Amino acid sequence: MPIIRLETNLDKSLIPADLSVEFCMLIAVVLGKSEERVSVTVESGLDMCRGPSKDPTLTVHLWAIDVFTEENNPRYAVKIRAFLHQHLPSIPDNRIILVMHPISGYYGQ
Hints:
The chain is built from 2 helices and 4 strands. The protein is of the alpha/beta class.
């Protein structure tokens, strides 16, 4: 049941229309989860900064059950960042923040 939230200050017009669906498919593969269990929300046009700069930035929150570990997270990050660079090329790597929130056990549907 991965739950993903992408938050950016990019205008909605700069976000590919199918980003949420394609990101859902990527996360399912990367985390080894069923696509039907992945939820993705994309929030654009937010008032965000990284440091004192309001240049394009992105924060990605990922919640999932029993997949995030010190060993696995760097491998996940490489694949996720590659996808984001391809689909959101105006956001440089140093302005993409990945936050992996581990969830233990079953929390319902």
